[in-house]
Amino acid sequence: MTGGSFLFKRIMRPIDFPEANMTFSKPVSMDDSECLPLRVYAGTDASGNPYINSVWQPSREDIEAINQGRPVVLTILGTGMPPVSLFTYDEKGNSNEG
Question: Domain segments of the chain: what residues?
Answer without folding.
Answer: 8-67
